[in-house]
Design goal:
It contains 17 helices and 42 strands. The chain is of the alpha/beta class and 682 residues long. Strands 1, 11, 12, 14, 15, 16, 17, 18 and 19 form a nine-stranded mixed sheet that branches. The protein has a six-stranded mixed sheet with strand order 9-8-7-4-20-21. Strands 31-26-35-29-36 form a five-stranded mixed sheet.
Length: 682
């Protein structure tokens, strides 16, 4: 590996908070400079545009985010290398980006220690004193300048997080997570580092960069079992308004915000999860390196966002970048600075997100020397995930999971319902309640950005790798006491996944609402039967906010053949993320019947093992308790949905589809596009 510091910034001279300095050009100076610029020459004397002692400097900020323990370029679920993921492959882009410029800094935006089988393996093994989490073995060699705390950092508890962070040879910042006892920031809120850089004339200049981090306040909901009574959270934007002026007073020449938060243009509300749009309006922030949403900014996805310039990579005029997930991209922000006023200030900026692959073709190779640093963890992870847990009598593939009942969701729901049934045995308050279970697909093409991201397992031997493939997250099971009305509204929220279909329109109509709905919110509830009428408008939006009180997509909702009444009471198995989120109807702490300490994924693995011991194999076959309602029409319809490409997917769809399905073509992302026959001619 090349020297990690070659072609990069000068070494920090200080990591301490420095004295205050004026960061805004005096009005009189601005007016004087404008007047000078308006003159050409007088009496043969050429007027210069800026003071003779003014210096200019170019600074590159490089970002990774949402690595999710994908240190290696390896798909452990499929047990084969991948060109689409991996910090060791992104590292090659980092080295390239550094070599192109004289001055650079490198930062990470969190969601680092959880999310891949390597993360699961490390958590299962535990971190002892002196152990270094594998991602940090690589990042320390890459010489990161600063890191931020993401929401998934808390999945294994605060103690585990602190042990993991101890292996990082660079500081971490987070301003909006507070100690519940003292009310003070739990982590260091910001870092001001004095860097020695080279200006455009080749002279050494000291530039003080302030880094400030934020996490979604929702961590207090998602990981409440680890954080309740220990941490509290503040609104991201309000926290920035509080701390950024202090950073300026403390001497920061440049302020880089590192929010683990995405972009939403919904009206501003306190404690919003995705706050970057409003963060970009906070005075004093020079650049935003964000993440969390697993998307890419700048890109066409954000072309319609007000204030977004995807050519320049700015948001409300502020340079901003979000480099995908799992090492798929590296963010590059180029800032131009001047000290014409006697104080360094950013005068322009440009960003881009550089991909490690395009269309499945690698753009860079892995850094072999960095990969060698985690050989042990890589081999141990492969061994860990390939341990046998049982057998399956049929294949489980998620190609159809968004349009019909599917075995990859069915098996999760059966495992959760079985666990709840066993848990409540002998409980006089809960034992008699009918048991339902809710689960969503996790691998159905990402966010319509990865046609390889599907669950694909054949019948036969199953390992922990397969269980992790079916259930990606270390959530824990929670059972809720819900009414029939709440079950119906829950399903209405899930049905927001679909576009409204016009029964009189013959031209192609997309079925799936990729833009406004995340597939992990598409809950299938087992134990009841129902149909989804996609000719009706959506009742809820992608955040489960009511948008049409008169709309009803869920039809024929029954339990054991009888209509579900509003006041019926059920016990519903789900996960802690959903149960405490208070977005879906029927969720929230007041509805919790019991919270299990067991992870949904472990429950699934145990169910597979038990079924294999009792019956020789687990049966994952879908029971088709839900389907899309047929559409009565006089017009032949062309309704389309996208799924995995390839012969395997087509054979599975031909064999398993409950509606007529015809392959049409591939879309621009490489997904196969099918026509689904929902029309029933009058």
């Amino acid at each position: 590996m090349a020297n990690a510091s070659s072609g990069r910034k000068g070494q920090p001279t200080s990591g301490t908070k420095e004295g205050a300095g004026n960061t805004r050009r005096p009005r009189a100076m601005r007016r004087l400079r404008a007047a000078i610029l308006g003159l050409a020459s007088i009496g043969g004397i050429v007027m210069i545009a800026q003071p003779a002692n003014a210096a200019t400097l170019s600074l590159r900020v490089i970002e990774t985010t949402d690595i999710h323990a994908n240190v290696m370029d390896y798909d452990y679920y499929k047990d084969r290398p991948s060109v689409r993921i991996g910090l060791v492959r992104a590292a090659s882009l980092i080295q390239q980006a550094r070599a192109e410029v004289a001055n650079s800094v490198l930062l990470d935006n969190g969601d680092l220690i959880q999310g891949s089988p390597m993360g699961d393996y490390m958590a299962a093994e535990g971190l002892k004193e002196g152990d270094v989490f594998p991602a940090y073995k690589v990042m320390n060699q890459l010489d990161y300048d600063v890191g931020n705390i993401g929401n998934h950092e808390f999945n294994y508890g605060l103690e585990y997080l602190e042990r993991a962070l101890s292996g990082a040879q660079f500081p971490y910042v987070n301003a909006n997570l507070l100690d519940a006892t003292t009310g003070e920031p739990y982590f260091t809120p910001y870092q001001i580092t004095a860097h020695v850089f080279t200006d455009s004339e080749g002279n050494a200049q000291t530039l003080k960069i302030g880094y400030i981090g934020f996490a979604p306040p929702q961590v207090m909901t998602w990981d409440r079992k680890h954080l309740k009574g220990r941490l509290t959270a503040e609104d991201i934007t309000e926290s920035a308004r509080r701390w950024v002026p202090e950073m300026r007073r403390a001497g920061a020449d440049v302020v880089i915000a590192i929010p683990h938060s995405g972009i939403s243009t919904d009206p501003y509300r306190v404690m919003a999860e995705n706050s970057v749009y409003y963060l970009s309006q906070v005075e004093g922030i020079d650049g935003i390196a964000f993440g969390h949403a697993h998307a890419v900014f700048p890109s066409e996805e954000f072309a319609e966002v007000p204030g977004a310039d995807i050519a320049k990579g700015t948001l409300n005029g502020v340079p901003a970048m979000m480099p995908g997930h799992w090492g798929s991209h590296v963010g590059v922000m180029d800032l131009e600075l001047s000290n014409a006023s006697g104080q360094w200030r950013v005068v322009s900026g440009q960003t881009e997100a550089r991909p490690i692959q395009v269309g499945g073709e690698a753009q860079v190779a892995e850094d072999a020397e960095l990969a060698a640093l985690v050989d042990h963890e890589h081999d141990a992870t492969r061994e860990y995930v390939n341990r046998s847990i049982g057998r399956a009598s049929a294949a489980m593939k998620s190609y159809l999971a968004l349009v019909q009942d599917d075995p990859t969701i069915q098996i999760v729901n059966r495992a959760q319902a079985d666990y709840v049934k066993r848990f409540v045995e002998g409980d006089p308050d809960l034992e008699s309640l009918p048991i339902l279970s809710a689960a969503a697909p996790f691998k159905v093409g990402g966010r319509h950005n990865d046609p390889t991201q599907f669950t694909e397992m054949e019948a036969g031997e199953l390992s922990f790798r397969n269980a992790a493939d079916l259930y990606l997250y270390p959530n824990t099971l929670v059972a809720l006491k819900v009414t029939g009305r709440e079950v119906r509204e829950w399903l209405e929220c899930s049905a927001g996944q679909f576009h409204r279909i016009d029964p009189d329109l013959a031209t192609p109509q997309p079925l799936l609402n990729w833009e406004g709905f995340r597939s992990y919110n598409f809950d299938v509830i087992d134990g009841v039967d129902y149909r989804v009428d996609v000719t009706q408008p959506a009742r809820y939006d992608g955040n489960c906010a009511l948008i049409d009180a008169d709309a009803h997509r869920i039809q024929g909702l029954t339990y054991q053949g009888e209509p579900v009444n509003d006041d019926d009471v059920f016990l519903l198995a789900t996960n802690n993320y959903r149960a405490y989120g208070e977005d879906f109807p029927g969720t929230g702490e007041s509805n919790v019947a019991f919270a299990s300490p067991d992870e949904n994924r472990s429950i699934l693995a145990q169910y597979i093992s038990r079924q294999t011991q009792q019956q020789g194999a687990v049966d994952p076959a879908a029971d088709h308790n839900w389907r899309l309602a047929a559409i009565d029409t006089d017009t032949p319809l062309d309704i389309r949905f996208t799924t995995a490409p390839g012969e395997d997917a087509q054979q599975f769809i031909d064999a398993q589809a409950v509606y007529p399905m015809t392959l049409v073509d591939q879309d621009e992302m490489g997904f196969a596009r099918y026509r689904v026959g929902l029309d029933r001619m009058k």
